[in-house]
Amino acid sequence: MFGVLFPNRSFPMDISTFAQIDTFHWILDMNTFVGEAYDQVREMCIFLLNGFTLPPDKALAVYVQSPGSPFVFCGAVSIARPSAVLTLQWPEPGGQMQLTSSDSAPLSAKIGVSVEDLALLPSLDVTAQKRIEHLALKVGENLFNFMQSFCSVDGSRLVVPMDILDRWFKKFQEKATKDPEYLKVPDKSLEGRWGS
To answer: What's this model's pTM, rounded to 2 decimal places?
Structure first.
């Protein structure tokens, strides 16, 4: 049905590497793959295998779970997008890190793959969506800081010069041109649809 590859860390692996939970859910226990260093695995390529037909309204969604945390959505593949390199944004570990019984294993990090309705998933390009959000935040923060350096207080109002936006935009363009990395930062994940 699908295969995965961890760039610079693995050969291509097929679905047999994952434990099948039910007809539509598979889990990869990261302890068996990399032990406690799961958070160093930052990318995963997932692809549909040749000959596998996924209905056009379905997708294979990918989630990650740190020990004791809920699953977080990372992205998906579909017939229209049969492969993707996804950024794995591991959530902070949480919950009870203790054993639930004397013969239980400690909680471990997991990657989950599930068949889901394409229309119900967040944007398949989570990375691009988060970059846009980050860009908007960086621009807003830069504008606020620039305006703050020129404003005065009149009662409960901030007063700024009339040409402040023109001056800010020129300065912002110069900064972005000199430092292309200025607007780039690691993405944050969206909460997933799986329970903990």
So the answer is: 0.61
